[in-house]
Write a structure and sequence with these properties.
The complex is a heterodimer of chains A (125) and B (213).
Chain A lengths: L36 H8 L4 H7 L4 H6 L11 H9 L10 E2 L2 E6 L3 E5 L6 E5 L1
Antiparallel strand pairs in A: 1-2, 2-3, 3-4
Chain B lengths: L1 H42 L1 E5 L5 E5 H4 L3 H10 L4 H5 L4 E2 L7 H14 L12 H6 L4 H7 L4 H13 L3 H15 L4 H8 L7 H10 L8
Parallel strand pairs in B: 1-3
Antiparallel strand pairs in B: 1-2
Helix pairs in contact in B: 5-8, 8-9
The chains are: A alpha+beta (125), B mainly alpha (213).
């Protein structure tokens, strides 16, 4: 397939200071792989939370970026129900829903902390 | 004396009460004036040159929606804006800026030139992010050829046109919402660089999302 051409990371420098980003970076024009991390992360920032869990396994680039820019998360009743069913929140006082750390939750409210701590979201459900 | 004093005070109060009203009028006038100036400036047509060499004409205000183009124009330090129109076309040196992409981009900025500028620190940022695309934007961005669509998004990103990148982002996210991994991978031609084991592990971790409602 076309998008199997040589791939490299952009702006990668090795420890010795040699620029390794000089390898040609060629992707098919109609493949989303052609976008660098910045743009890709921006595009994914519009994805609803539920779809982020679903699409984490798409590629390593997606896995790396998909939770980076969660700045307004919506956990609706449907999603909440699934989380509860699967006991995502557990019984512990600080349950973890990777990659979000859920600080506290009760029937009506979830408070999540983004790993990068750039934002704190309180969601009413 | 007393009478004069109190009269003075009243006048003083009236006067101190007045400025906000005047300012409000001034603000309004200033806004109007700015609006008119933007409108006038948009009548000045400048030329943009694609990576492939195609030259496209675009209103000045519209062209300035591209932060990159705006910066380039600022760097010219041209006080007589009409002279900008007669200058050489502005070259856009990125291979995503194809003729087709630039044509579409010019169409988009010409339609959106009087949009309020996007300010990420602004309060309604979240609101705007969650807003549905307008009918016009939906039709604009519904492009069958995915390579062309990605060219436009990459070019808009290169030219720093935040509004248009957002339209592209929302469009792509709308397309992949609710789809399975395989479907999305197929649709966006994303190369799976996980080993089957790695993929299975992530899948297992997020398994709960597939629970039946």
């Amino acid at each position: 397939m076309a998008h199997k051409k040589t791939k490299t990371e952009r702006n990668v420098t090795t420890d010795e200071g040699k620029v390794s980003g000089q390898q040609p970076q060629m992707y098919a024009k109609n493949s989303l792989d052609r976008f660098g991390d910045d743009l890709c992360q921006h595009l994914l920032s519009y994805l609803p939370l539920e779809d982020r869990f679903r699409h984490e396994c798409l590629s390593k680039q997606w896995q790396r970026l998909i939770y980076e820019t969660i700045d307004g998360i919506t956990i609706n009743r449907k999603l909440m129900k699934k989380m509860k069913t699967k006991n995502i929140f557990g019984e512990k006082s600080v349950p973890t829903l990777r990659p979000l750390t859920v600080e506290k939750w009760d029937q009506m409210r979830v408070k999540c902390l983004q790993p990068s701590m750039r934002c704190e979201t309180i969601v009413d459900i | 004396m007393n009478g004069e004093y109190s009269l003075d005070t009243t006048e003083g109060m009236a006067a101190s009460g007045d400025p906000p009203t005047n300012n409000a009028v001034d603000d309004y006038d200033a806004e109007e004036a700015l609006e008119r100036q933007r409108e006038e400036e948009n009548k000045i047509k400048i030329k943009l040159k694609s990576f492939e060499g195609g030259v496209y004409e675009c209103g000045l205000t519209a062209a300035k929606m591209s932060v990159m183009v705006a910066n380039m124009l600022d760097a010219l330090q041209e006080t007589d804006l009409t002279k900008i129109a007669t200058r050489e076309p502005i070259p856009l040196q990125n291979d995503a800026v194809t003729n087709k992409a630039l044509e579409k981009i010019v169409e988009w900025v010409d339609h959106h030139w009087d949009d309020p500028p996007i300010d990420p620190d602004f309060d309604d940022e979240k609101e705007r992010r969650n807003e549905e695309l307008s009918h016009w934007d939906k039709q604009f961005i519904d492009i069958a050829d995915q390579g062309e669509l990605f060219d436009i998004i990459a070019a808009a990103n290169f030219m720093d046109i935040k509004g248009l990148v957002e339209v592209g982002a929302k469009h792509i996210c709308n397309k992949i919402k609710g789809k399975s991994c395989t479907e999305v991978r197929e649709m966006l031609k994303i190369h799976n660089d996980f080993t089957p084991e790695e993929e299975a592990a992530i899948h297992k971790e997020n398994e709960w999302i597939y629970a039946k409602d």
